[in-house]
Every structure is written in C-alpha cells, then in structure tokens.
Write a structure and sequence with these properties.
9 helices; cell membrane; ExbB/TolQ_transport; mainly alpha; 2 domains; single chain; rod-shaped
C-alpha cells in the first residue's frame, strides 16, 4: 500500500515538472509574449516568402530542350517575327533574354550582348524578389530571441534585488527558464529562415546558369558564318 502511494506521489511530481510550451510563453510576462509574437510573425513571413519563391522559380525553370533548335532554325531562315512569337509564348527567363537579343539583330554584336546582359539583370532581380527578407529574418530572429531572454533575466534579478535577497529560488528559476524560451524560439525561427534562404539561393543560381548558357548559345549562333 505504501509503495502504491509512493508511485502516485512520484507520478504527480513528474506531471508537475512537465514543461508546457503554452505555460512557458504565458508565464514569461508581457515582454516575453511580445517577443514570441514578433518571432511568430517573422516565421510566417519567412515561410510565405519561401513557398512563394519556390513555386515561382519552379514555374520558370522548366525549359524545352527543343527551344533553342527552333530559335536557330527561324533565325537562320530570317523568320525573326516567328522567333519573337515563340519567345513570347515561352514563360522562362532565358526566352525573354533571347527575345531581347532577337530584337537587336542587325546591330553590332556588342550592343546585342549589352541588351541581353541588361535583360538578364532584370530577370535575376525578379527571381530574387523578397529573398533578402529571408536573410534578414535568419540573422535577426536569434538576436530578437536573445533580447527577450535578456529582458527576462533583468526582470528576474530585479525581483531578487527588490526582495532584499529573500526571493524564492523556485520562482526565480522559473522566471529564468521561462525567459530562455525566447532564445530557443529565436534560434528555431532563424534556423528555418536560414535553410529556406540557402535553398532559394541554390534554385536561383541554377536558373541563372541556364540563362547564361542559353545567352552564350544564342550569341554563338549570331557569330556563325552565314
């Protein structure tokens, strides 16, 4: 009977020591709650930008292997209008670069190359839309979380100082580990944003390399002897 009572007591103590994320947030005071709210907003913004960019880049990264062959045949045969129509019907950055180059055919090759580079800069800017925000979140979130922890620590030690050193260690410890939740939350948001940012950068670089390859192929076509 005594053993059963001891087991019940141990179970009750174990339940009391169980950490609740909700309780940690709500017990952190208004400062901690504001910091957590800011981090949640940053996380939502980072995830929205990530998925929006992934879908946008995937939509323009699909290339037709026969596209350049068709462009080559039409340019060689002098069907420049048909080549422009084909580029306009193809939703990809490289198609827009080729269209810009076709519109400059007849001018010096250097002018054509400059026009393609300018169009390429614009396409890269479109691909990297809002990506810098991901980098900002990745760097700022951990610092915001650490700020929340520092504020919590200041409040905890202020309570100990104003109580004349008579503050209960239990309540003091509770305040400290509650304050630490903002650092954990900040690190989680920062890590997610950092991974998302690097993934977008890799996908963007892949599209940029495709654009460069198609631009070089088009310029080589114009350099071929008639």
């Amino acid at each position: 009977m005594q053993q059963e009572a001891q087991e019940v007591l141990d179970e009750a103590l174990s339940e009391e020591k169980t950490l609740s994320i909700y309780n940690l947030i709500m017990d952190g005071g208004i400062g901690g709650q504001v910091i957590i709210l800011i981090l949640i907003i940053l996380l939502i913004a980072a995830l929205y930008i990530y998925f929006e960019r992934v879908f946008a880049i995937n939509a323009v990264s699909k290339t037709d292997d026969n596209f350049m062959n068709q462009i080559k045949d039409q340019v060689v045969n002098g069907k420049l209008d048909a080549a422009k129509v084909l580029c306009a019907q193809t939703n990809s950055p490289e198609a827009r670069l080729i269209e810009k180059g076709i519109s400059r055919i007849g001018k010096p090759l250097e002018d054509i190359n400059t026009a393609i580079e300018s169009a390429g800069t614009l396409e890269v800017y479109k691909l990297e839309k809002n990506v810098s925000i991901l980098a900002t979140v990745a760097g700022a979130a951990p610092m915001i979380g650490f700020l929340g922890t520092v504020i919590g620590m200041i409040l905890a030690f202020h309570e100990m100082a104003t109580s004349g050193g008579q503050a209960e260690m239990g309540s003091l410890a509770a305040g400290i580990y509650t304050a630490m939740t903002t650092t954990v939350a900040g690190l989680i948001v920062g890590i997610i944003a950092y991974i998302a940012y690097n993934h977008i950068v890799v996908k963007t670089n892949k599209v940029v390399h495709q654009m460069e390859a198609k631009a070089v192929e088009f310029l080589d076509l114009l350099n071929e002897p008639v």
